[in-house]
Specification:
Elements: E1 4-5, E2 8-9, E3 12-15, E4 34-35, E5 38-39, E6 43-47, H1 51-62, E7 66-70, H2 74-81, H3 92-101, E8 105-108, H4 111-116, E9 131-134, H5 149-158, E10 167-170, H6 178-186, E11 192-195, H7 205-210, E12 215-218, H8 222-231, E13 238-242, H9 244-275, H10 279-287, H11 308-321, H12 327-352, E14 363-367, H13 382-392, E15 396-400, E16 422-424, H14 428-432, E17 437-440, H15 452-458, E18 463-466, H16 473-478, E19 482-484
Parallel strand pairs: 6-7, 6-9, 7-8, 9-10, 10-11, 12-13, 14-15, 14-17, 15-16, 17-18, 18-19
Antiparallel strand pairs: 1-2, 3-13, 4-5
Bound molecules: uridine-5'-diphosphate-glucuronic acid (UGA).
Length: 491
């Protein structure tokens, strides 16, 4: 298969390592696999040991690569060396411990050490990293231009140290054109810059990394792109090779499509309420259509988190800068903003019997505050946005979330969380105490099996607004509660 056209990589999809000319086999105990002249275990440096970098480092090590992770935060590196992680991510702590003890993963503070040093017991000892992953924060700056200060600082520190032929890989979500800007900053024609976006969901990052739907590698030179693709060969995933700008855009295209799907479902749920249909039945019915699929069809309080809101706005800026009015994307964002107000109106209706009823000094219990279940991440959580609107409306809020620490005496946790305007408690029963309504905001499965009759017994008014359609309406009814979901045909 021809891999390049006039030096430019063409978009191709491969399945597994075989098409890359490398076998999809497990590495030997020594960590290196050689076959047909190909060595596809690499010495890898990962710069930035945050959520993306740490997952990338640990997972690449588990594929047999020699990985050194660098992070500027001395205390974090210390904690990582002791096996303590700052983030709640299933399986990650175990994987880090396993790879550290297998001597395939180590942590350093100085980025220069990561790109020049390999572990002492590496059979090739003393050679430079062949692939350097940049997993750094690249927030959106003014006018949609990436704030590349973190990247610039790392490049400044390492550009003289990189061996000829090194591949620098950008894994963070970055505006289109960042690979080009990184190459300019680097100013090393003998070093390639590749875009290899991550598609990891919080709460299942390790699983997503090791069982990806696809690998995307974007670069303007075929050899570097293939080198990066080969790192993942063992995973046997479809691999899309393309140019850097397309790879960068692909990440936004995916997240914005997901956001659009969710806004569509939330709008459809509202329509269901108006015409007496049931969103659960509607989404089940359309989800069997393979062109639509069952995933990402659950209505909710609006999509949030550290990615979808940021990326939808970023793509709008990309479109604006390209003089393209992306109305569909704007409507996707507006629908999501409106969803929050819609939830507040539902709560008003549930508590007072009127969509415009007053919530002044009404005590409400919030169940779930994180942006989704399985994480302790509160960034851009729709639950917090809704809490702020309820506070503005005068409500008194008490909240419980299984991932948040309310009790300073909790021996298991390092820090106590604080949520503006919400009194956090460590027992869901306390949330129910004296509440005029409970509002389920995060889809924690544990809420399904709460002692609902006891909860109902301590409430001032037995009403539950379930913004995730999580709870079984019959269970609530039996407990003497009125359950109000989204787009549900109330029986
Ligand atoms: C998202 C993407 O799903 C990942 O593919 C991507 O790699 C990641 O962003 C990123 O850019 O790094 P994440 O932010 O972890 O992952 O969260 P999602 O699981 O996508 O959920 C986003 C929001 O949609 C949450 O608020 C969630 O509660 C909501 N949601 C999701 C629904 O309301 N209904 C659904 O059916 C699914």
């Amino acid at each position: 298969m021809k891999s390049s056209v006039r030096g430019r990589v063409v978009c191709r999809t491969w399945v597994g390592g075989a098409a890359l000319g490398v076998p999809a086999v497990a590495p030997s105990a020594a960590g290196a696999v050689e076959s047909g002249g190909h060595v596809f275990v690499r010495r890898v440096a990962v710069v930035g040991a945050g959520y993306v970098g740490l997952t990338t480092g640990a997972c690449l090590a588990s594929l047999g690569h020699q990985v050194v992770c660098a992070d500027i935060d001395v205390e974090k590196v210390d904690r990582l060396r002791r096996g303590t992680l700052d983030i709640l991510e299933p399986g990650l702590a175990e994987l880090v411990a396993e790879q550290v003890s297998a001597a395939r993963l180590s942590f350093v503070v100085d980025v220069a050490d990561a790109v020049t040093a390999v572990p002492a017991d590496d059979p090739d000892g003393g050679r430079h990293a062949e692939v350097v992953f940049l997993c750094l924060p690249t927030p959106m700056g003014v006018g949609g231009v990436a704030d590349l200060r973190a990247v610039e600082a790392v490049i400044e520190e390492t550009r003289e140290l990189l061996a000829p032929g090194t591949v620098v890989v950008n894994k963070s979500t970055v505006p289109v054109g960042t690979a080009g800007r990184t190459a300019e900053l680097l100013d090393r024609p003998d070093v390639s810059v590749v875009s290899n976006p991550e598609f990891l969901r919080e709460g299942s990052a390790v699983q997503d990394f090791l069982h990806p739907d696809r690998i995307v590698v974007g670069c303007d030179t075929a050899e570097a792109a293939e080198r990066v693709a080969a790192l993942y060969a063992r995973l046997g995933a479809p691999t899309v090779l393309t140019d850097a700008a397309s790879a960068e855009l692909m990440k936004y295209a995916a997240n914005c499509f997901l956001a659009m799907k969710l806004s569509y479902v939330n709008a459809m749920a509202e329509l269901c309420e108006r015409v007496g249909a049931d969103i659960g039945d509607v989404t089940e019915g359309i989800g069997y259509d393979r062109r639509i699929g069952q995933a990402f069809l659950s209505p909710g309080p609006g999509w949030g988190g550290s990615c979808l809101p940021k990326d939808t706005h970023a793509l709008l800026q990309v479109a604006d800068a390209a003089d393209f009015e992306f109305r569909l994307l704007r409507a996707t964002i507006d629908t999501n903003t409106r969803q929050r107000q819609r939830i507040v109106d539902k709560v008003r209706q549930a508590v007072t019997g009127r969509r415009t009823g007053s919530l002044t000094r009404v005590r409400l219990g919030l169940l779930g505050l994180t942006f989704k279940a399985g994480t302790d991440d509160l960034r851009d959580s729709p639950a917090l946005a809704i809490a702020a609107l309820l506070r503005q409306a005068g409500a008194e809020l008490v909240g419980y979330d299984p991932a948040l620490v309310a009790d300073p005496a909790d021996p298991d946790r390092a820090a106590v969380h604080q949520v503006d305007g919400v009194t956090l408690v460590s027992d869901p029963l306390e949330v129910a105490q004296g509440a005029e309504a409970l509002v389920v905001l995060t889809e924690w499965p544990v809420f399904r099996t709460l002692d609902w009759p006891t909860m109902a017994g301590v409430m001032k008014q037995p009403v539950v607004v379930d913004t995730r359609n999580l709870l079984d309406p019959a269970t609530l009814r039996r407990a003497g509660l009125t359950g109000i979901g989204l787009g549900r045909r109330e029986a």
